[in-house]
Amino acid sequence: MDHPVLHVRDLHVQFVTDTGTVNAVNGVNLQVKRGSTVGIVGESGSGKSTTMMAVMRLLSTGARIGGQVDFLGENLLSLSKKQMRKIRGHRISMIFQNPSTYLNPTKTIGKQMIEPLLYHHLASPAEARRRAVQLLGDIGISNPEKRFDNYPFEFSGGMLQRMMIGMALLSRPHLLIADEPTTALDVTVQAEILWLLKKLQQETGMAMVLVTHDLAVAAQVCDEIYVMYGGEMVEHLPSEMLLKSQAHPYLQGLIQSIPKLSGEKGRLPYIPGQPLGASANRPTGCIFADRCAYRFERCAERPPLLQLGERHEVACWKAGAEVSV
Amino acid sequence: MTDGAPRANPVPLAELKRMTKRFRSSGQEVVACRDINLQITKGESLGIVGESGSGKSTLIRILQLLIPPTEGQVYFEGTDLTRLSARRLRTFRKKIQFVAQDPYGSLFPNLTIGQNIAEPLEIHGVGDRRSRRELAAELMETVGLSLYNFHSFPHELSGGQQQRVAIARALALYPQMIVLDEAVSSLDVSIQAQILNLLQGLKEERELTYVFVSHNLAVIRLMCEQTAVMYLGRIVEQGETERLFTAPSHPYTRALISAIPAFTEDGVTPLGKSVQFVTGVSGSKQGGQGCAYHPRCPFATSRCREETPELRTLESAHQVACHYAETMADSVLQ
Amino acid sequence: MLKYVVRRVLYMVIAFLAVSLVTYFLMKAAPGSFLAFNQFLGGITAASINLGVTQQLMQELVKEYHLNSPWYVQWWSYVWNFLSLHMGASFEYPNTPTLSLIRQTFPISVGLALMSITVATVLSIIAGVVAAVRENTWVDRGTMLVAILGTAIPAYVIAVFLMLVFGVWLHWLPVLGFKGIQYYVLPVLSLALPMIGSMGRYMRNSLMETLHSEYIVTVYAKGGSLKNVVFGHGLRNSLLPLITVVGPQLASLMMGTVFIENMFGIPGMAHLFTTAASMRDYPLIMDSTLLYALVIMGMNLIVDLVYGFLDPRIRKTGYAG
Amino acid sequence: MALKMEELEDRQTRTYQILSQRRSTFALRWFRFRKNRLAVVGLVLVVLLVVAAVFAPIVAPYSYTKPNFLETFKGPSARHWFGTDSLGRDVFSRVIWALRSACIVGFGAEAVELTVGLMIGALAGYLGGLVDNILMRIVDIVYAFPSFLFSIILVMLLGHNIWAILIAVSATSWVGMARVVRGQVMRLKQSGFIESARSMGAGNWRIIRRYLLPNSMGPVLVAVTFGIPANMMTEAGLSVVGLGIEPPTPDLGQMIIDGQQAMFSYPYLMWTPALLFAITLISFTFVGDGMRDAFDMKGKR
Which CATH code fits B12-95+175-330? Predict the structure, then answer.
């Protein structure tokens, strides 16, 4: 039973705009095992959110998606629109960055919360309400019966995100995709939400994908981490290896450039240059080469994901060579 | 430089004395800052941490007298800024500069990069057109911007470059102090490191003093010698950064440190351990009896509910507003 | 909420008094004004002969409108007469009280306006929804081009083309007079088309903005269909801002009736007003201006209240942000 | 100075090639405007119509007043493009002259509205508080006026000349402009760069002049482009109800209404001025639409 819940193979996403074609995601591979938590980490424009939006097929009509997205043995990209609708909010749920803009301001919390159950005919309205109220209580919202009829503006950001999580889990999905779930929240609330997510994930046994720009958050919550740069996957490693055994020069630079809470403090080392924007012209070789200190001739050729160890892959000639030799 | 020697000039660079700020919004009074005493010594950058709504934005705006305090005084180099006329205040504005959170929003969208950087010089009538342009170009090099961008508009630059422009603009008048409001939090990690590195360098070169608001404790630790923790309009703990982070004496500081994910030398801080947040009792409750933090504090006693703790000095200028600060400091942070 | 209504009504009273004052002083300043009227009492002017006012009636008018008293008495008597529905004789129709003139004409104008706004609202919602759902297809572009044309062309020019096509060339509908339901068709269409233009466009943009907002992504992520999105979330939220443009639309609708009633020869209130204006019939001008002001303000208040009731943020917190 | 100005100038000349590739703000707006094809068509038409109106004495082939009783009610022909009216006057010439009055009122009244609206809106928005409250109450009151009736009363008082009409048209419509400006100023006042300007020590006047007004120009310009045809509509509308410019000066509204008298026998007298007027108004609206695109005011697409 080592079938991954989600297996993304060679995913490509292009946006066709007035000013030209934007290659947002270029050949991403990714596996999410049953009951595991996978983090997708990257800076803005790295394509991490686009990847997951492509998996959910929630991108605008201008997006061209290529590759294969296997979910429980079914290729989501080959499903009809109607079949895909049956998966969304039922088998795969998604929560987003800013709960206050991702909820309809003029509909009550409760009405919005039970929608997944109603859309998929999983419960009658009365039954849905009962289950939603109970879940609201379980995830730490006091007086859920009354809170059910509140409007989003009457909730704090942290409470809204709790409610969003509750809404996502109401239909007992196999996979939860959390796209920067704590970025818009206050620092102290962030811990609460992450803790709740982790707890619920363990209780329900569902798989979870956490998209975040914060390496520390990913390290805290996830089992495995995928690092994206310029629309490509540059490294995949277990999270306990993140700080000590990273192999890609980009990830090494990134880890070094993060200020630490203990240890020496001096001038901060950093990666020179700008991150590769999605609309920029892509080099034919390694996408990180022009910012990389270890660049050599071979980097003119694009490196594939090289296996370094168990659950450890890197897209770098130098790092790959050190191991394979 | 001279370690251990008594300071010759005891006048602090900036000082807040018994400062209180109240706002009136839709008939209700909100106390944004309550009875704040704060000293900033030259060369000792100050970090301010706290949740949103803790009053840190208000505090730094009052420090620059962008908004007037309701009560109390604001001193800069010994002069009470609250008593100055608008004209005399202008000359002090040269010495304090501001870098805001959103670099794009803080730049003048209708002016070029060069004009943006020269703007403070023009406002204060420093030099002529030519010399202002020269200085602007020089500052662009200082902050690591290409002169190619001299005639660009802010919207053509990336976020990191925009923040460099904002920093260059803040440097134009050779200020003594720069107030940075979450100046790196909207930037990507690799860009954030570039800007922090730049700020570190400038601090050394130009003997700047920063007032650094951030929710990123590791950034504060890197940039600031002193740190103040704010909760609901009060400073609840203040002292040397290193000491405050290794031995926090206020339960709120401890909660903050454990709540914010960060890397340490050899790993990552554990998720939410030792945090007992009570949902629903968030920061909105104000006034009333006792310690403002007691509804969320796991160590609260009946004394905490009745008696408001004053900010008091522990050893070596470390100040805490907690009745049980000594016991807090003794128990090692997990 | 109650506080808000009270404050709004208070503003309305102030605005109403201001309108009456300004109108009063404008008329006083006019050549051939009350003052000239007073002079007429001593002698005879050409204007008075045209008006066919007898000496005796004149004195009644002086008494009724306090023409010999200070200005504030005159002004107040106007306002008071209006408010207490004691609108007296007009100069032009000395034997008919203004009130009965208004009573005859006002319902016709209101009926015309109501029909037009109903037609316009229904059609613009349909057009807006169709265009927004079929965003950037020829359906969208075509609908919106028609909408732009509707907004750009005033009611009286639209009326010209409607008259030409349906009256002169096709002989389908009557173009003058007012004797039955078929006489309503062209006037209502002339009034409704400009409104459909601006409201339909507004509806489309507002619905499209809603459809592109982040909470719609959530609805899709929950497994909602386009139908769920439009009818469960989008329509309601985009109708809300549509309500706010109904107020200004009413004002321009009122302007439209002035032309339309004149062009189609409809004996409505606006027609009455323009006749009064060209005849310098001050009491009638004053009364109808006040009535129009009251209607505009009243409609704006109703629109705001409806909006406040439909938006939970305002309904629950009580203030309009 | 470590860096000499010559050096900077030198570098600048070297960077001009790069700079010329970069889109300036204006170029970007022009690019967005041009993408709206109808807007470009509208702009061309507006320029043509305005030029025709300005040079009416040259453009109009005949006198607009002189009757020619030998050639009454002649339909459109090569000699008289739009035909002749009951007095044998050339309709095309009259239409061109009428366009001139429409333009004077359209642009003139808009200038008045812009001046008043900018002053009141900027003052109310920037100062806020009591000043804002008082000014906005005044605006509310003017807003409650039945504006067209008010224009009618004003024309009645001031006479049927073009200046009276100009005042009558702008008397209440400045309110819209004031609201637009106020909204912009209020929005920008919250923005980071105004706070920056304050922290640098910029005075109120400088803030308004250098940062607030230039950055609020987009919506104001759009409002102006939509305001001009609206003024023309009101102006012609006054003629429709018999309160426009005094004959024999031609006026589009008057011509349409006169044409209506003879619509069964000589329909061209009605539709030629109506069509030209419609085209004028539509052109302005298309331009306004393009301006909206140029200033990206439709929100995200």
Answer: 3.40.50.300
